[in-house]
Design goal:
Blueprint lengths: L1 H36 L2 E10 L4 E13 L3 E3 L1 H11 L2 H23 L2 E6 L2 H5 L3 H11 L4 E8 H5 L3 H12 L3 E7 L7 H5 L4 E4 L1 H4 L6 H16 L3 E4 L5 H9 L4 E2 L10 H10 L10
Parallel strand pairs: 2-4, 4-5, 5-6, 6-7, 7-8, 8-9
Antiparallel strand pairs: 1-2, 1-9, 2-3
The protein binds ligand C2E and magnesium ion (MG) (3 copies).
Length: 284
């Protein structure tokens, strides 16, 4: 009887593995279809001047609502798109449509920061700099483009990466490090590369009011950014306590559910018109 259980167990296990593998292949092929069927869309999360509680820009985030697989998280499908190479085409689409939207908001607002996440493979493609150059040439001067890179990319010992960063700087693009503090712990690239902005990962922000270590690390990152003359964005501001802490320590910019989750363009238009809701503070 025990033997039978064991076999069942094994069978169950391989079936599960099979499921994982199949899902990956399925996701890959559905993602190919998604582009044709228009299942991909963009949402925008307000970037907020914390002191003035005003929207100064937006982070562009990709959404995939699959007819077959349901709502798929970018955390899940971006790595798959990266492996299969689909990220090239998807990333180009993201940049092109974000630029059209960002240009509208920039003209309307007089100044607007548009940030777009860039994956490693996309960044390394020979088409990347020409694409950005073309988009920047068309963009209104009020639009500031901010490309979000990962620590992972900057840690690669690759002279091509450094070269591309310089080319992007020449085009007037701002460069930020996303999820700062969660990747490799070497800070040498901050001195090596022309970085403009650090985005403090929400893992730090989440516990600033409860955990002394998170608070110390956040203070340290803020003061380091200040002395290196870098701009800084705190991610994942969810509660008034987070905002209080960040204001107390002079963090200039932030994003998070306290202000707004990522929203569709029409809703973002309304936020620009009406301002951020003040009474959202106590929904958590
Ligand atoms: P990220 O760039 O660090 O984006 C921030 C993520 O945190 C987003 O998740 C956003 O919805 C979420 N978020 C914002 N405020 C809060 C908050 O207050 N609390 C919590 N718990 N979460 C918050 P999302 O949209 O699911 O994206 C996940 C990741 O997928 C992104 O992390 C980014 O690395 C990647 N991604 C999304 N869109 C793109 C894209 O167009 N291209 C590339 N290469 N990657 C993308
Ligand atoms: Mg990001
Ligand atoms: Mg991030
Ligand atoms: Mg992230």
């Amino acid at each position: 009887q025990a033997k039978e259980d064991g076999r069942n167990c094994l069978r169950f296990y391989t079936a599960e593995l099979d499921q994982v593998a199949r899902t990956r292949i399925e996701i890959e092929s559905h993602l190919r279809q998604a582009r044709v069927q228009g299942e991909l869309s963009l949402v925008y999360q307000p970037l907020v001047d914390l002191q003035r509680r005003q929207i100064i820009g937006a982070e562009t985030l990709l959404r995939w609502t699959s007819a077959r697989l349901g709502e798929m998280s970018p955390e899940h499908f971006i790595p798959i798109a990266e492996d299969s190479g689909a990220i090239q085409e998807i990333g180009t689409m993201v940049l092109q449509s974000a630029f059209v939207q960002g240009a509208l908001w920039a003209r309307q607002m007089g100044a607007f920061r548009l940030s777009v996440n860039v994956s490693v493979r996309q960044f390394k493609s020979p088409d990347f700099v020409p694409l950005i150059a073309g988009l920047m040439a068309e963009a209104p001067p009020e639009l500031v483009l901010d490309l979000e890179l990962t620590e992972h990319l900057l840690m690669e010992d690759d002279h091509k990466v450094a070269e591309t960063l310089l080319q992007l700087k020449k085009l007037g693009v701002h460069l930020s490090i996303d999820d700062f503090g969660t990747g490799y712990s070497s800070l040498s690239y901050l001195k090596q590369f022309p970085i403009d902005i650090l985005k403090i990962d929400r893992a730090f922000v989440r516990d600033v009011d409860q955990d002394e270590n998170s608070a110390s690390l956040t203070r340290a990152i803020l003061s380091m950014a200040k002395s290196l003359n870098l701009d800084i964005v705190a991610e994942g501001i969810e509660r008034p306590q987070h905002l209080d802490f960040l204001l107390k320590h002079a963090c200039p910019w932030g994003q998070g559910y306290l202000f707004s989750e990522p929203v569709q363009p029409a809703r973002f238009d309304r936020l620009l018109l009406e301002g951020l809701p003040r009474d959202k503070d106590f929904t958590y």
